């Protein structure tokens, strides 16, 4: 998951424990995807601002302490730890 603070976070689906996080250049846009190359799994996510951002007032009402980032369009790809990759 991601937020306006530009962090992407990975959680253990069974326990809810935070496994890792990384601050990106902008907020996440669209949906992350995963794919495998050989025995290694990757997570790709695009970030940035534009017509697909949360332009309504709903985010401001729900999380007034967060601010919409400006610019920073990019594509980030993370190699997942070996224990998270398919056998």
Can you tag this structure with a few keywords?
87 residues, mainly beta, 3-stranded antiparallel sheet, two-stranded antiparallel sheet, 1 helix, 5 strands
Proportion of helical residues: under 10%
Order of helices and strands: EEEEHE
Rg, alpha carbons: 14 Å
**How much strand content do the residues show?**
35-45%
User: Could you tell me how far the N terminus lies from the C terminus, measured between alpha carbons in angstroms?
Assistant: 24 Å
Pairing-aware structural class of the strands and helices?
mainly beta
Strand ordering within the main sheet: 3-4-5
Please mark out the parts with pLDDT under 50 across 5 or more consecutive residues, or reply none: none
How many discrete structural domains? 1
Shape: globular
The strand count comes to 5
Residue-averaged pLDDT: 78
How many distinct helices?
A: 1
Largest sheet: 3 strands, antiparallel
Explain the overall architecture.
There is one protein chain. The protein is mainly β. The protein has one domain. It is 6% helix and 40% strand. It has one helix and five strands; from the N terminus they run E-E-E-E-H-E. The protein has one helix spanning 58-62; strands at residues 7-11, 18-23, 28-37, 40-47, 74-79. The strands form two sheets. A three-stranded antiparallel sheet has the order 3-4-5, with no helix packed on it. A two-stranded antiparallel ribbon has the order 1-2. A hairpin with a 6-residue loop joins strand 1 (7-11) and strand 2 (18-23). It starts with 6 loop residues before the first strand and ends in an 8-residue tail after the last strand.
């Amino acid at each position: 998951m991601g937020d306006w603070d530009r962090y992407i976070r990975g959680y253990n689906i069974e326990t809810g424990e935070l496994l890792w996080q990384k601050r990106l250049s902008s907020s996440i846009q669209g949906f992350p995807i995963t794919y495998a190359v050989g025995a290694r799994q990757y997570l790709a996510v695009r970030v940035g601002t534009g017509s697909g951002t949360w332009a309504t007032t709903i985010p401001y009402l729900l999380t007034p302490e967060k601010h919409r980032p400006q610019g920073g369009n990019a594509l980030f790809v993370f190699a997942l730890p070996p224990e998270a990759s398919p056998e």
